[in-house]
């Protein structure tokens, strides 16, 4: 029985994907989210469908919490596991973490790297899927300002932090050729990600009515997970929904890739 670790499992795409994967009785789902009650309810629903699942509550809102989560996962996950990075944050305002870093930069980029580092060091992982966003093409990384959110934008910050993690995962795949890594845009999905209050929130809720349901996206991701391999050794391919596409130009920029790499390495040196 292979383990499938799924972050952000308590709601949206993650919740729908967990239920879709419950029917793959050969896998055990290791469900990660902050809300223990919602995770426990999901585990029960999966077991009722004949699936196997355990809950591992964890928080990616700080590097210390991410490190502790990684250690908890090492204790329960067996070698040959698949990790699905699905948790994410689209912030409405600039918020700093205990480390003095912008919250989305941590949740969407640094903390997943810290969490997965323990799993890589313990040789638990065989495959990594990153549920990213097509909006990475709008990202713009500023090494001096992005980590602390001095360039915060209600839209651009989400794009940039997702771009940073995508670039980091390209480096991870190059450094770990035995891993099979894919980064993908999952589709335009009706979830509460990026929810806002007031008139903007009301307008956004109207727009979202035309977007696809999480269950449709989950079925697509399940099909991709069923593929024998996603990317050549040492590479991470970019998918738009189910189709491989060239990486966006910003993700091919040597200047941007080097700036993200050097900044990430510096910030994680003592994490």
TrEMBL record:
It holds the Pfam family adh_short. Keywords: Oxidoreductase. Belongs to the short-chain dehydrogenases/reductases (SDR) family. This is SDR family NAD(P)-dependent oxidoreductase. It comes from Archangium minus. The lineage of its organism: Bacteria, Pseudomonadati, Myxococcota, Myxococcia, Myxococcales.
